[in-house]
Amino acid sequence: MTEGVNVNVALGDKTWSDVKPEINPIILNFIHEHFKFTTMSPVQENAIPQLLSHKDVVVEACTGSGKTLAYIVPVFHMLLEKMKTTNLLPNGIYAIIICPTRELAEQVSAIAELFSNMTNITVQRVIGGHDVKFVGHVAVCTPGRLLDVLNSRAAIGQGVFDVKNLEILILDEADRILDMGFERQVNQILAQIPKQRRTGLFSATQTSHMMDLIRSGLRNPVKVQVKVTMKNSAHQSTPLQLTNYYIICHEEAKLSQLLHMLLYTLSPEQEQLKIIIYFSTCACVDFFHKVLLQLVQARKNANRKLQIVGLHGQMVQKRRTVTYEEFLNGKGVQVLLCTDVAARGLDFPDVNYIVQYDPPVDPNSFVHRVGRTARMGKSGTSILFLSKREDNYVEYLQLKKVPIIQGETFIVDGVEQDKEVEDGEESQDDEEEDQKGKVIENVLPEVLEMVKKDHDLVDKSTSAFASYVRGYKEHQLNYIFKFSNLRWSRLMRAFALVALPDIRELKKNNIQLPAAHIVDVDAIPYKDSQREKARLVRLQKNKKKEAELEEERTQLQEEKKLKEKNLSQKKHDVRKDTDLKSKNKKRVYQQLEMEEIRKEKNLLKMLRSGKITEKQYSEMSGEEDFEKALSVSSRDSQPNKKTKTGSEGFVPSLLQSAEAKKKNKKKT
Questions:
Q1: Strands (E), 257-415
Q2: What is the pTM of this model?
Q3: How many domains in the chain?
Q4: What's the CA dihedral at 263, 268, 273, 277 to 10 degrees?
Q5: Which domain range does residue 645 map to?
Q6: What are phi and psi of 356, to 5 degrees?
């Protein structure tokens, strides 16, 4: 790899007209007239000349540095220059741009289509929900959909997607593409497209997977590494115009702090705001989205009105698109609750605040999350919530060249110290932390009342709690975010939990719900009449089934006790049998015991493995085998001699001999 170019992020002094080789006049005029750009960003200033010089490039730059235009401009310039000497085939693909998500591909397509309108170069989208029915010289794709089209002989046979004249391949958010598990698809794509091409990789971070891809897919690439540098200091990983804050607060205080900030403290004088709030899981987004909507609705007299929407990867594509457009085009204070699916690639212009309600599981996601704001030289603010036991994360971020300072902490009225603290020192630290800041309203009692009246919130609360615990357990920085440090009582109150999910740690430690959270969950209705009707039918069936199981369980227990009693009586009869010698009597009794233990052990293994039911286990482990053993008729044998039947036939033969002696005595 050729030596990299390191520059500071800021809108530079170099103009678009200064680029060498010169940019095609059609593109240059369009940039000046449509985008109103005069100067270039550092990533554009250094990446565009390399691509125009027909070199492969690897561009590493923080989010919001102008990477999209850094490859869109060279793509259209190359094709316009090619059109001077040859006609572009109507069914030929001359440029491929691969994006990690459909949303990013849609955005890139929209920008590319602006340039397409000024030229005869066409653009087509090769993503889910779009059929490949028309020609396009520039294909904007997602990895899976592109591979499907390349593998489709029908499409290639119709001449819809001909890549033999491919000039340039761009991988946008290349690190994200690999992180999402598309490495195999990318390698298969590289194997099916021409080797004589230009390739550009654009990303915010460098990983080991990226290096493997660079070695296999690029030829002598030039590395363009854009770093943010403050005066008299080393470089940093986030935009210079971004201010990062962290707030230390208990788990059960986070929601109250968040609502207070949204309503009163985040730029209260501004009427137009865009705020993105990140959660760790999709279920958390669903739960807190519904809760925040109701909390805001109950505060109609607040200083501002909030428009709150939720976005995560488990939504159907149509709903995701609608949500994205609502947040993008909405007026007033727009609040987006999302997971990391929106942390990369999606272009939300003019985002003012990033709030990380949950720290990211992947440490690299922090930079990508906060990169949604402070884009292209604009200012922005990010806020990170941490508990007292997670504050080492601040030091970790500082080691990663992320400048961060402590923000204002509020005291949430009525939030008590957790009774689960393991030592007095931690409790004292928490108490000192609680004594700082302005007192604000505690909204958790209100949320708990919401949950107690809506079964849908019961479901969402339980799912959110369980998913949060699973995510926390799998945190990559588990030496900072220690699973053993979770405070279950606080966490249950934070999620207004009224139904315990099936989590092993809860059962193992016999964790119970807080007293105020213990309710009859079956009595909580759905507000939707159809769902409530279905729930009542389901509940009735479950109760009937449970009653039948309980009756069967009781019957099996009684049968088992009876069989144990009969077995005990048989053993007693053997011990009292005066016709058996003492030595043989002991041997018979021991054999009965050993045979019983062996059978019980084998049956228990079968029960645990699911090969038999509890009823079958009870039947098979009862007195039936002993009845057979005591009633088997076989030839007479001496009790003090071994028989050919071995250990299994030894007991019946001794018992039979004893019974024969009894009959002879009666006859005489």
A1: 273-278, 306-311, 333-338, 353-356, 380-386, 405-406, 411-412
A2: 0.72
A3: 3
A4: -40
A5: 533-667
A6: -100, 90
C-alpha of 502 from chain center: 18
Tokens of 368: 């990508």
Distance CA(19)–CA(52), nearest Å, equals 9
Residue in 106, 104, 113 with CA at minimum distance from that of residue 202:
104
- C-beta atoms surrounding 157 within 10 Å: 8
3-state secondary structure (DSSP) of residue 55? coil
210 within 8 A of 186, measured Cβ to Cβ: no
CATH number at residue 437: 3.40.50.300
pLDDT computed for residue 596 by the predictor? 74
Measure Cα distances from 103 to 37, 355, 631 in Å: 25, 21, 78
Give the number of C-alpha atoms closer than 13 A to the C-alpha of residue 126, restricted to the C-beta side. Answer: 28
**Residue 490 in tokens:** 């606080």
Terminal C-alpha separation, the chain:
110
DSSP β-bridge partners for residue 381? 243, 353
Helix (H, G, I), strand (E, B) or coil at 178: helix
Say yes or no: 224 and 273 in one domain. no
> Are 279 and 171 within one domain?
no
Here the tokens at position 310 are: 């939720």
CA atoms within 13 A on the CB side of 321: 9
Distance of CA 144 to the CA centre of its chain: 20
Q: Give the SS3 label for residue 638.
A: coil
Shared domain for 481 and 505, answered yes or no, is yes
Residues, the chain: 668
The segments of the chain whose pLDDT lies below 50 read 3-11, 230-233, 417-434, 623-655, 658, 665, 668
